Amino acid sequence: MNMSITGLIILILIAAVCGAIGKAIAGSARGGLIVSTALGFIGALLGPWIARAAKLPEPFVVTIDRHPFPILWSIIGAALFVAVLHLFFRRRWSAFSR
User: Fold this and answer.
1) In Å, what is the CA distance from 55 to each residue of 24, 47, 75?
2) How do the domains of the chain map onto residue ranges?
3) Of 4, 96, 81, whose CA–CA distance to 35 is shortest?
């Protein structure tokens, strides 16, 4: 897998934007650029997997250095991942804050 430095930087920036949008949809305000980037990449793995399982198409894919990045499913996957994290960890964080 060959990718130029410019392509990698563009891919990281797109993942950060997708992660930030997914984080905003799920209602999270925690974390910064690195968290948003990680969420974008997690969403890019989780979202298309869900789409393939449900036999849904990938409506918006950006190709960077011959590598496709599913924008819409990355956002949806990131939002679902953050929502699941909120379900499991919200109770623990609220218990510690008392």
Assistant:
1) 26, 12, 18
2) 5-96
3) 81
Quickly tell me which residue has 């956002």 as its tokens: 75
What is the per-residue pLDDT across 78-90, written as a single tens digit (0 to 9) for each? 999 888 888 887 6
Structural contact between residues 16 and 41, judged by C-beta atoms closer than 8 angstroms: no
Single-letter residue type at 25 = I
Kindly state the DSSP code that residue 67 receives in the 8-state scheme.
Answer: E
Amino acid identity, position 77: G
What's the pTM value of the predicted model, to 2 decimals?
Answer: 0.80
Q: Are 33 and 16 in contact (CB under 8 A)?
A: yes
Q: Which parts of the chain are beta strand (E)?
A: 61-64, 67-70
For 76, the 3-state DSSP assignment is: helix
